[in-house]
Predict the 3D structure of the following.
Amino acid sequence: MVGLGVMGANLALNLADSGNRVTVYNRTTSVTEEFMAGEAGDKDMVAARSLEEMVSTLDSPRVILLMVSAGPPVDYVIEDLAPLLDEGDIVIDGGNSLYTDTVRRQKALAEQGIRFVGTGVSGGEEGARHGPSIMPGGDPEAWPTIEGMLKGIAARAADGAPCCEWIGEGGAGHYVKMVHNGIEYGDMQVIAEAYDLMRRGLDMKPSDIADVFAGWNEGRLRSYLIEITAQILQVSDGEPLVDSILDAAGQKGTGKWTVIASMESGQPTTLVAEAVYARIVSSDPDRRARAADVFNEPIRALDTTVDDIESALYASKIISYAQGFRLMQSASEENSWDLDLGTIAAIWREGCIIRADFLDDITSAYRDQPDMGDLTAAGFFADALAEAIPAWRRVVSAAVRAGVPSPAYSSALAYFDGMRSRRLPASLIQAQRDFFGAHTFERVDKPRGEFFHHDWGA
């Protein structure tokens, strides 16, 4: 294990508990010493004070798991590590690396006979220690060697299946983890909007909103994020702690990467995009304060109900996951990854941040229809969306009238309306493009692929 931050340290302990002999190394030796002086001291674990010492403790084929910051730090470690390794050794990058970096690193290490695996790991500190969701991809020849190790530390779904499976070659594992994180951004945004609508629109106290979320966690929205939201809103230090937290959301880039990747693939992940932009809007509270002084319009009472908000949240969540799975399907076709979307949904059922009962329904949908083009076409989800439409529209329109922003709900509804429209105003856009740039257009009365130009000035 290279890197003993929160994730690396807890994964090392998890690996040791699962019967593996683990050598740990951290660039800062004091971190290693502190780690070994704690819980690690009772484990089958060896401390190394250099990469050379670490490598010397391992038998071939060596398996080395990197848990260092994504980006250049991974390259720096690989550069120092690769000369010390032998043909057939395996390097696993378990950080949140950009999938194209994983492709590059795999190709470079393959030239030296080293097998490289880019592995998504989700579950935070608790998951790393007791069982995360693991998404490995890269060199398939490495999988038989590391399969037992990774499945042995993974979370287990209710049916006993480990939340870890081989995703695909190249950057497939990190791509799927990237989309997972994008969906996570969306989940957090739709939950935050529900909170805001209840807090500012319905003038509810955080403790009362906590009770609502706790109730939702007993139903179809049951999930880790709904559960912790209920707990967060109960915490008080004299006043609700959530009120003392600066409303400027941070981000580490995976949501942005998802949106960029969707644009490159020509796939609409509109809800993730809105979640990313909502964080960006939140990140400048001083600018927002100045605008609030200029446009000092009070928030009006929200003309809707808590039950309607639950329906809007659930419908928007369906759209977010449908967009994410559509993106993964497109990437699979582009990169010849042969992603199994049902398996991906299955390994997200436990261990990861977006774990939810909802993923059981997605797993079933893809197992019943492996070639399903869009999750919203599955009977269960199609019925749920149809049932939610009236409440969804009431919430979005009520939010607009009240002045409470609901970008995720609004974006999801706009996408839904666009996807169900037999005809869109894109015909006018094509006419405009042809008018000023002779870009041509297709006709509804001609076969697809035939293009025409009109002399608009004649």
The CA atoms of residues 95 and 111 lie 23 Å apart.
